[in-house]
Amino acid sequence: MAATPLKSLAPGQLTWRKLRSNILAMFGLVILLSFMLITLLAPVLAPYGRDTIDMARVDQPPSAEHLLGTDELGRDVLSRLLYGGQVSMGVGVAATFFQLIIGVTLGSIAGYYGSRVDSTIMWVTDVIMCFPFFVIAISMAALLGPSVWNVILIIGILEWTAVARIVRGRILSLRSLEFVEAAKALGLSRWEIITRHLIPNTMGPIIVYATLSVAQGILAEASLSFLGLGVMQPQASWGGMMAAAQKMRVLQNEWWLWIPAGSMVLTTVLSINFLGDGLRDALDPQYKY
Amino acid sequence: MLAYIVKRLLQSIITMLGISVIIFALVNLIPGNPYASMIDLSMSPEQVDALLRQLGYYDPLTVKYVKWLGRMLQGDMGVSIFYKEPVAAIIMSRLGNTALLAVAAILIGSMIGIVTGIFTSRHRKSLIDYLTTIFAFLGLSIPTFFFGMLLIKVFGVDLKWLPVSGKSTIGVTLSGMDYAWDVMKHLVMPAMVLGLMHAAALMRYTRSSMLEIQQQDYIRTARAKGLGERAVIYKHALKNALNPIITILSLKVPALLSGALLTETVFVWPGVGRLNYEAVLHRDYPLIMGIVMVLALFTLLSNLIADMLYAAVDPRIKYD
Amino acid sequence: MNTEVDAILRIEELVVHFGRREERIAVINGINLNLKKGRVLGLVGESGCGKSVTSLAIMGLLSPDDSEVEGKIIFDGQELTCLSQEKMGQIRGNSIAMVFQEPMTSLNPVFTIGYQIGEVLSLHQGITGEENRQHCIELLRSVNIPDSERIYQYYPHKLSGGMRQRVMIAMAMACRPKLIIADEPTTALDVTIQAQILDLFKELGEKQGTSMIFISHDLGVIAEIADDVAVMYAGHIMEECTAVELYDNPLHPYTYGLMNARRGSSDQGKTRLYSIPGIVPSPYDVVPGCPFAPRCTRAREVCKCEIPALREVKPGHKVRCWEVENHTATFD
Q1: Number of domains in chain C
Q2: Which of A114, B227, C80, C324 is the most exposed place for a label (fewest CB within 10 A)?
Q3: CATH number for the domain whose boundaries are B88-313
Q4: Cβ proximity of A200 and A171 under 8 Å
Q5: Strand C228-233 to strand C211-216: parallel, antiparallel, or no bridges (unpaired)?
Q6: C-beta neighbour count of A214 within 10 angstroms
Q7: Cβ within 8 Å, pair B316-C91
Q8: CA C239/CA C246 separation, integer angstroms
Q9: A2-29 pLDDT per residue, tens
Q10: Which of 161-180 (B) contact A at CB < 8 A?
Q11: How far is CA B65 from CA A139, A229, B24, B69, B82, in A?
Q12: pTM value?
């Protein structure tokens, strides 16, 4: 078979090749992109408005008019599901972004400067990691009040520690390599060395982490909203929609109010996990496909 | 070895201080007066003033912190606004239930996770390997409460095999074996939810650990000595995998406690997690802070125990 | 001399393939070896020539998942290639033992030295308890490890590379095997330790009459220890004769090149360092004809088209080379 020899492919192309051969990862990518597309197009695709109330058709099971039925205010479940996707996925992405800013910065500072600075930053991560996420998240939500931005803030503040450690570890091992010496000899400032040389070499693990953390963010938002401490009505979110099922009547008889929302969360998070796992393997230089 | 223990203890104490600082900061961010709950309205203004002075109300922040820390160390975590009883006592009464749930979950999760992890590392690309991989992904991707609600619907409501909530059947007084059996029935679903999610994480990690170990030179030596596969895997390989397994078990403790919170809420299991949620709903700040403190310290303790276990298992660490 | 009777190990047309379908490559291309009882066979070649794979094939340590072994390996009258893993396990560590290249990683870090040696004794000879312990301590003494009672209780990380290699040798000798395969046992050690370990091998070999296959890329080491030598290149045997004959009369261009490379490094720098031009081919680059042709200074047309057979050009001296066969080679 006359294929391009592996050695002559650029790193990006090689990674893509490896990823492509991973069925689960590709499945995840396709599903994820589709979901992102349909939720972004919610204003166009949704049959009804997000908040359109129809008191004549309250708690209706799925029908021709309302494909996924209606909720306790007569709102169309399908439409809310689409709009809700915007919030749920949006929170996941925004929270990840927030985590990366804090985590990559602190991690690279810790890794590059070492000694006292490193010890202090590591001590802070140790302390934060002692708090179980939900325990402190709901406590903070109690203090700050439920809202989309507070959820993003809470997740961001609590979860940056993992990426900080990853970045720090990488920079510690890269720091002693020769190309850093060469950069210093060329007169590059410390900041330039960190941003232009060290961090790009850490991109692999950061990308994998970012992908997986979007999944975690979606799960966190869903749980917080389910508990009534996250996204509030009338804003829709998948977790918030599932809160209805805390009533036994709903759980027993009105499956359309919570099972579709839960399935969306499950499918989205599953897809992201497949993709993230595939990325991890694809970025591993020793992984042969 | 002793030097190592001492070093770790000192580190833990410093971390504990950090935890206390954060909690103290949160306590002071609470809207309203955190000292309000400690004041008995029937006291005279002079008595109230004296009490406040003793508690540190008029003091600068650092002194407030020291006084507060002192009270904490003596077990005085304040009084719950909702229950009107000492926070410490309330937490203690529910801790046992969470422990029961957590232990059951860890046992289920570890057994399933480690055994399948070892098995799939030896039979890669088999049907079971693919199935367990999918299962592991599902376990990591499903929201805890959704899984719980699905189980309740199927097993509790539709099939009516298991009770849907609580720790024991209400309105019935049982004792001895009957009581234990009743609790077991109530424990099954929440423990399965928590345990299976635990298993999912452990399974993949054990598998990749075992795979990595089986590539090592000393495994080749073991085979070259004529040892059978079973001895090679379960003696030589597994003993080296213990350390990574202990690592992940201890790293998962906070996740377990978080998961317990959601599981207890869905199943109305009377543990500390459910208590936390209720306290948040009532805005019962002293209780909330007390629970956060206890759970954070518990996580710290489990990290410490894990470190001790490493040293016990891996001979290289004693000489650190 | 009836070589059939004296041979403790006979390898016939051994072929080993790695990989599946499109990635299937031949790592060993039909080699034949005869090891006589009590003799030391040196297997020489650069990295990648297949010498380690040969030893793993003999031991049955190649994973059936991605390798395929064809041909016959007859040890002490018994055909090894068709044995089950269980039966092979009774032979490994017992009648055939192996010492590997990397002493630093070849011992399990979580078990004591004594435990790891004792395992072999209890597994194959059923010796347990105090008798086992005494036996192990005696073995440690026999490989010149001082203070063997204390070392018995140590974990591997407390020992140096040289000491660990001695432990590996003690483990290999534990059941008095008829054959020891040593795969580059001295390569990872300091030069002074190398000499000690080599002496140890020689001593044990002489004392117990153990047959040995000694693998190395270092001609100096081979000169010290081997009775007979086989030179390997790209999964083929290129030259085969006694050690003395090899050093007096290297016939194959590759052998000659190896000798020159070595000689060049010990000159006082008057002559330039000689190295064989080109690089060892990867098993993926299969060329028709003699695998050494691309790098051979004496290559002719026929060399590039057809691979020569291994022929006995002098009594007891086999070579695989068109030039040598036709007596047209003169080396100066």
Answers
A1: 2
A2: A114
A3: 1.10.3720.10
A4: no
A5: unpaired
A6: 26
A7: no
A8: 9
A9: 444 555 556 677 778 778 878 888 889 9
A10: 164
A11: 20, 29, 7, 6, 25
A12: 0.81
